[in-house]
Each structure stands twice: as structure tokens, then as C-alpha cells.
């Protein structure tokens, strides 16, 4: 992670995607976020964000992302300090949304303008997506209760990219950077779950390129909301992937 002239963190992707950086989310991203989450090539592949997605949704989501980023950065500074001093201070970051940087941007090499093109974040595994059962509720509570840095914490990754930028290797590189520049060294991530709608071969490939291992496809696992499918009861199969840190 590097810092810009305003002391704001960013991660730059390697060549050939060196014009792509990942930074904290900004309120001014709202219009671009709304546009992307209103595009069927994006929202039909996502289970998380509400649909339709408008200003109201962004206004309630942005403060959550902003707080997570600030808290994570503050903890990261404590960790860096403790490691430098070799002290017993904070060793790991909580990372409510993974790294403090979640917004993927393309930098215009002439004007320097930064255009929001996507998002990647990590959250503690949402067990209830895997079935609203008493057992999963217990697993969720247990996972949520683990201390920062506990290698037993299970994580989920969520991501999307503007269709204008698909198939340039951007998300594969972004996932690699977030996992290896932040989740592993600062959050001690050992277990990351991934899931994708079965028709989303691009997403599965991004996971595979990052060392996730295919587990299974469960047919008719997820019921698309009527707002997206135009009718109720339309179900899609979900593929499950798993990344385990090699130690
Ligand atoms: C899925 C998504 C993140 C892929 O991002 P991307 O930056 O285009 O992916 P990459 O360019 O890193 O591609 C990785 C590999 O997948 C392949 N791939 C990407 N999109 C593909 C598609 N639609 N169909 C088949 N293969 C695809 C690429 O060719 C590449 O394979 P290669 O290295 O063998 O050439 C992007 O399409 C997206 O944001 N889609 C909408 C939202 C979404 O699906 N989010 C994920 C929810 S689980």
C-alpha cells in the first residue's frame, strides 16, 4: 500500500494494468456506482447490493464504507507501529470491509483524473447466504466473534467491474493485490470463500486464477429478487469456491 500527496492510501496494479489503482471509496463515486449497479451485466451477477440501486441506497452505504476504511487505516497504522517497535501492541487489523482501499479506479495519464470503475471488498463470511438455518446462525455468530487476526476467521469476497473494462485482467490483479498486500499480511487471512452464479464463468475464472479451488455447484440455490428477474421464483445455481492459505 502506498500513500498519495494527501496521505490517502492506494494500491497500484502491476503492468499492464498500472493505470489502475484501488483507493478508499469517495462520496463522489455515487453516480458511477449507481450507473454500474443499474447495468444488468453487473447486477444480474450480484446477490449482495439491493436492486434497484439509487441515491438513497448509496447514501446509506457510503458512510459504512467510509467508516470501515478510516477504522481499518487507523488500525493498520497501529500495527505498523507495533511491528516496527517489536512491541506487543496491535498485531492485526479487524478489516470490516477488508483493506482500507475498495474502489477500483482508472487514472487518466494526461489529466490525472481518476474514474471509478469497480469495487472489491472482503467481509466476514455471510453464513446466512449459505442457508438461513439455526446451524448457520450459530456459525455466523461464532465467526463474527473471533478476534482480529484469528486464522479461523472465514472471509467472503465481493467485487464488480464496469463492463467497459472487462477482460483486461483487472479483477484478477485486483483480487491478488487485496489478498496478498492486505488480507494476508495485515488480517492474517487463512480462509476465504467465494461464490458465483453458475452462468458467471468470468467470476469463476478470476477465483481460479487466484488459487481458489472449486467446491461444487448447487442448482437452484439462489432465488433472484422479483425486481431483477421480473417474475418471482426464478432460481439460479451457485458455484462455491474456497481459498486456503498455504503455510
Ligand atoms: C466477473 C468479473 C469480475 C471479471 O472481471 P475481469 O476483470 O473482466 O476478469 P479478468 O479480465 O481478470 O479475467 C480473468 C479470466 O477470466 C476470463 N473471463 C473474464 N470474463 C469472462 C467471461 N464473461 N466469460 C468467460 N471468461 C471470462 C478472462 O478471459 C480471463 O481468463 P484468461 O486469463 O485465461 O484469459 C467482471 O466480469 C464483472 O465485474 N462482472 C459483473 C459483476 C460480477 O460478476 N461480479 C462477481 C460476482 S461473484
UniProtKB/TrEMBL annotation:
Please report the stretch or stretches of sequence annotated as the N-acetyltransferase domain. 20-213
Question: What domain of life does the native source organism fall in?
Answer: Eukaryota
Pfam families associated with the record: Acetyltransf_3
Q: Which GO terms describe its molecular function?
A: acyltransferase activity, transferring groups other than amino-acyl groups
Q: What is this protein called?
A: N-acetyltransferase domain-containing protein
Q: Which organism is it from?
A: Hyaloscypha hepaticicola
